[in-house]
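Lab notebook, page 48
Experiment: co-folding of the full assembly
Goal: obtain a model of how the components sit together before planning crosslinking
Operator: M.T.
Materials (sequences as entered):
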Amino acid sequence: MKWLLRQLRKDLWSPEVAGVGLGLVYVFALWLSHRAPGASGTFFNAAAIVGKPLTASDPANQFFVVTFPPLTEGLGWQFWMLVGIFLGALASVLIAGKFKWTLVPIEQWKDVFGPSVRKRWIVAFVGGIFLQIGAGIAGGCTSGLALAGGVQLSPAAFLFIPGIFISGALVQLLVYRERY
Amino acid sequence: MSVGDILLALALGFVFGWVLDKGGLNRYYKIANVFRFTDLTVLRFMMMGMAVGMVGIYTLKYFGLVDLTAVSATVLAGNLIGGAIFGVGMSLSGF
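Observation: model returned without errors.
Model output:
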């Protein structure tokens, strides 16, 4: 019991131990709910709810009619899962005693990009646009395609992951230059 | 969506969020450094998750308890190019 409490209060676990938990989430999600966890779909659905009325007057624009119609049941299962992710991560930092409000996250960012808060937010926003466009083209994000596809041995996941690493490494090469 | 569905989604999400935080996946430097190959936490976490998931899911499939329907379509260029665009955002913002 004491051991368990000590583990719960740790800031980080070994990635392998945390990874076992990750795998079990996917197993139980597929078993109990017949769905695989995913994150990017919720944002597409939110965009579809706003976008479908806006594009309804243009018959040539079929994206929100055919490709990504808004879910009829509203925000749905993935949305509640995102709420759960937020609560789980919050509980994790609260119990570890690491909770704090901060605008610029951590040291390494400051070393490379400087202390500007605005710059962090702009890069985060632009990066987010890339993330969502990429997820839309590929058919999912890290959770909904790389992991959900990977555990079901879908070839799509094993094309997606090298794609991430090729461009991700190139971007870091540009950002870090001689420090890479 | 029944209340049971919502509670299940919340519970699974709670554990998901918990292990993501404990794995350090919500920190900028963990994501940035995996692309510099100086800290492989992200890969170790994801590969372990996938290994456990594969064994678990295919065991359940053997007993007929799951059906593998929730898979994204495989489109060679789409998955690869989409992944490449995704990687730019992931690497840049560290999310």
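Interpretation: The first helix of chain B runs from residue 3 to 23.
Next step: discuss with group before ordering constructs.
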